[in-house]
Amino acid sequence: MSWQERFPFVLSQFLANLGLNCSDHLQIHQTLTSLHQTQKRGLFDFLSQKLHQNVNVVKNFYHNTWVKQFSESPTPYKSEIQELVREVVVVRGEEVREAIQVFVARHPEKQFNLRQLQQVFNIAKYRTKAEDASEARTEGSEGFSVSIDQCLLFQTACGMQE
Known about the structure:
- Helix content is 70%, strand content 0%.
- By secondary structure, it is an all-alpha fold.
- The protein folds into two domains: 3-70, no CATH class; 75-141.
- Helix 1 packs across helix 2 (25-34), helix 1 packs across helix 4 (43-51) and helix 7 packs across helix 8 (114-141).
């Protein structure tokens, strides 16, 4: 059995040490998310020792793989997210977290992973800014062309050429 397959069992051991018994993966996840930060202290060290893996490997697996199975993927909402970023972040000048709050409020029946939403919204923000900058460069250069002769004439007229 791989360490990833043993992962939920070791999580349940950690919770059992706190006097909390969980019967399935969802209950483990819900229990972990309901714990206060001080109760979670040492979680990744415990997992690392029991699974014989580096702490960062275990932490990355937890945040980037294991917890995502319990949440809705934001991928189907990509166009809505892009529009929200343009409206809330670019036009109104508010923070990404404000756009995330609007998005989550629009979908109260869905359970999203906040880390994943932050990543997706930040990517959308940078793409939107890059697209806007590209459009601005394109709009500013439309219909403007200068021949070499015109350039030389300008330089001569301005005394830039000897």
